[in-house]
Amino acid sequence: MACAAQLDGRKPMPKDNVFVLSVEEFQELFNTDVKNAYREMEDAANKLYDRDMRKIDKQAKKRMRWVYMAEYRKGEGRVKLGFSPEITPYLTMLHKRFTSYRLAEVSELGSTYSVRLYEMLAQFQGTRYLTITVANFKERLQLEGKYERFANLKARVIEPAIKELNQKTSIEVKWVPIKKGRTVERLEFRFEEKAQMALL
What we know:
Blueprint: E1 18-22, H1 23-30, H2 34-50, E2 52-56, E3 61-65, E4 67-72, E5 78-83, H3 88-97, H4 100-107, H5 112-122, E6 129-133, H6 134-140, H7 150-168, E7 171-180, E8 183-193
Antiparallel strand pairs: 1-5, 2-3, 4-5, 6-8, 7-8
Helix pairs in contact: 1-2, 5-7
């Protein structure tokens, strides 16, 4: 998201999709001291290199790496990230959704689930309403095969994420489980701005 925020719609993508993030930018964004910023930035670059993105439709499931290159040089105080060509449209999409203000908000979130839920809700800024099957929700949070009991998913993922969003961001989120028979089949999320600001 920090790299996507650097994009300028009036200019082409950086050569080879390579972005540079300095330790000063990282430090300011995540409100950390210099000593920790160096370590955390290197750790973040390594983790991003290992992460992938999944695109799923009725015909196929496709996995794509976010970055093809992550370079961190000691003493230079910056990290270079080369984003995979197929990821380019998603970077543009992230840029549109996350202004510098929203990026600062997301940087305060401590849970990956909170960040992913925030991203999901950002897609529905027009209606401020999201309904999603439990299976799709787990898939998007990469929780397949985990939390088979809905009570565990609710207690360990959904409620903590919503609590953190409500405490640390400018949106207020409410949700309800939608049952089919005795089984929770869908999740319904509604959200509003706390300070009468458009979401993004």
